[in-house]
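Section 4.2 – Deliverable D4.2 (structural model, holo form)

The reporting period included a commitment to supply a predicted holo structure for the target in complex with zinc ion. Inputs used:
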Amino acid sequence: MACKCINELPARIMEHCNQQKEYQAKPVLEASFKDVVFPIINGEMSVALKSNIELKVEGRKTPKKTVITFTYCPFCGVKYQEDV
Ligand SMILES: [Zn+2]
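Output (structure tokens):
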């Protein structure tokens, strides 16, 4: 794992939310990323964020759905994996 953002940010987000007036009466109990993938690179499991993409394709009535995995952490900019 190149950085610790995926593991550490949810706790910081939860802490930030719970400092806001909106969550004083009913605090956030847990935060987590929904778009986490665990690619296996060189036999080792890694962790990265992904995003769902919809492609409007000529001749298709519904968008084609696909997924991209981020190469760099969108929070700190560290590359998730070295070039292979
Ligand atoms: Zn990061």
